[in-house]
Structure formats: C-alpha cells, structure tokens
C-alpha cells in the first residue's frame, strides 16, 4: 500500500468506512502477524492478538497522528497487545528470578547460516519471557529500562532474561548444526 493510498484509507477509517477498514486489514495483515508471532508461538493465538490489535486501531484511530509513520503506531499497538496477553496468561517470569546478567559472547554471524524462517523458529523455541525480552531489545531496539517498564519487571530481570535468551539461542544453534 503506497503512502498516498494509506493516507486516504486512514481518513476513511476515521469515518468508520468498513471497506477502508478491510483494505487496511488486508494491507497490514502479514506484517502484523509477523510481529505477533515474535511474541507468541501459537499461530492461532497470534491471529487472535492481531485481530485484537486491529480492533484497537479501528476504535482508537482518532489518536493516530498522521505526522508519524502509521506502521510504527500499529506495531506499538500490536506489541502492547501481545505483552498484555502474556501478562494475563501468566507467561512472564516473576521478578524474584533476578540474577546478575553478564553479556554472553553472542555472535550474530552464527545466524548467517540460517534463513529468516529458521531464525524465527529458533526464537519461537525460547520461553515466552525470554522471547519477549529478546524481541523487544534485539529486534525492536528498546532499552532495558523501557522493557522493564513495559513488562512491569526490574531492569535486572530484563538483563537476566536477555542473557538467558542469548545463551539458549546459542545452544539451539549449536544443536541444530549437528
């Protein structure tokens, strides 16, 4: 969907135009599903969260500021929807699991041997807490302080979860090379 077409579609969505909503849904479905699948392993749950995210977009479209990229606003809604789901389903690690995290010598060159689908599959094998922190920090670029606030955990827990996620990914990569 081109920029001008997106602008027109969003204007129509603000007027609750069902055809425009369908157009937006179809135009951003694959992108949105890929975001949701980074946080939950089950495709049906990811689709449900994506639909919840679209409902939030349609009901809160007036809060979107056109001077900012729509894709960033949409992505933030999806991430928050996924995080809320993980909280409600108690799939986060309690803050009592706090440890001093040291950076694992994680070489991204190891990923060069894998396709995008294979990397995604490896990340999906992480526990929900580790996968969420890994995605937020490594993929989305959030700082640990921001992650801690988003997930209602301590910075130390965020660091710990990232450390453990990297360590587990290294193990999975080494195991898959055998």
Question: Could you walk me through the main structural features you see in this protein, from its secondary elements to its overall organization?
Answer:
The structure is a single chain. The protein is mainly alpha-helical and 178 residues long. It has two domains: 3-88, Rna Polymerase Sigma Factor, Chain: A, CATH 1.10.1740; 108-176, Arc Repressor Mutant, subunit A. The protein is built from eight helices and no strands. The radius of gyration is 18 Å and the shape is globular.
Summarize the structure.
The chain is 67% helix and 0% strand. With 178 residues, it is mainly alpha-helical.
Task: Please render the helix and strand layout as text.
Layout (H helix, E strand, L loop, with lengths): L2 H12 L3 H20 L5 H17 L10 H19 L27 H9 L3 H12 L4 H8 L3 H22 L2
Helix pairs in contact: 1-2, 2-3, 3-4, 6-8, 7-8
Look at the structure and give the mean pLDDT: 84
Question: β content, as a range?
Answer: under 5%
Q: Nearest-angstrom radius of gyration?
A: 18 Å
* CATH class value of the largest domain: Mainly Alpha
In the CATH scheme, what's the topology name of the largest domain? Rna Polymerase Sigma Factor, Chain: A
**Coarse morphology:** globular
Question: What tags apply to this protein structure?
Answer:
single chain; 178 residues; mainly alpha; Rna Polymerase Sigma Factor, Chain: A; Arc Repressor Mutant, subunit A; 2 domains; 8 helices
